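Final report, closing paragraph on structural work. Over the funding period we assembled a curated collection of sequence-structure pairs, and we close with a single example.
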Amino acid sequence: MSLTLSQCPESFKYASSDYSDDDVNPFSLVCSSLTVTMFWLGVGFALASLPIVSSALNITVLQPNVSFVPTPLPAPFAARNADAIASAFSNLGRTTVWNLIRAIPLQGDLWEPEGMVRIGADRIVISAGEYTSATVTYGKDTNGTSVIINGTDRSAGSGFAHLVVFDGNGTRIADATISEAGSEEYHNGGIDYDGEYIWATIAQYRPNTTATLVRVDPSTLEPTPLYRIADHQGGVVHDTETEKLYTLNWGSRNSSVFPSCPDGGFYSATFTRPAEVRRNPSYFVDYQDCKFLGHPKLYDRRSTMICSGVATIGSGNSSYNLGGIALVDTETMVPVAEVPITLSSELGQRITQNPMDVDVVDGRLRLYWLPDQHNSTLYIYEAQPDSPFEYGGEGGAVW
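Its predicted structure, as stored:
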């Protein structure tokens, strides 16, 4: 089966026999003059194409005469300001003063927000999980070890994955349900926007399970499934230069790499093995939401993403929720810079819990956070450039 694509980078000329009969080789895309032949390396399996319109899509439009996103679609804030963001980030520290620019209440129940992208100055798209029945842990055995059944420690629960569109003042424009009723995959994690599509992972809400990587048309909110993945995936970024997708599993402990041929439209119900898997060497925080930053000059043009997240340190009454942000080399998962964040929402949630976006405004680094469930407020903070350094700085020792 072959299909002519409008984009298919030369970097995906690849063939390998290192795939079992139960896996799809993601790099079995052989590009020749913009024609892609997709073939199965195992025994007797044909890839199936999926219509662009997903049967899971169910949209409630609250502002009928208002477009979901601006036309033409603008460039993503993170990628178009990559060098300025990297430079401003390099001046952050534990003593950075964060000034609240604005707190915007978002209209309606947002269940659990997971990811966020700003598309232009007046549109915000939020990924969220609506949970209709909770997951339940399988408990512990007589040795105090968690009981594991089929590779995971809890039941599936149930719910729906949402994409919700707001304007810049928090008015709800549309709410799209993008998972099937009854599907065990209903957790919509961290998302990315590349100037053309929104990228998302819809996963089971438990570790070591399954997920589907989807591409969403911002103008219609219609998802196109691309890959089935044999692990929970809680976030994704798209490197638009290398045309690679980087997904993050439960707790962002592993990063998986998949190719992206944006106009392919092909989907296989069989699990696709990632081209690469990288272990996250940092246990500072678990990344909740990331944005592809680009290839900043400051970091020798390495592929870089900016991530925000939390980690619970300790247990019981002595536990502490640590927040943090990081610039991460997407190829290696090695952080190139990271800073703790101690801010909290008015409801007491660590500010870096779940959705994040980034920009530079008038030379100042600006972070957008959305930490609270249900009654959610968008917090916009700006790093004060003349914040005191922890050591040294003006007036310090001269060597």
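The helical segments are 77-80, 82-89. The chain has one domain: 2-383. We thank the funder for supporting this effort.
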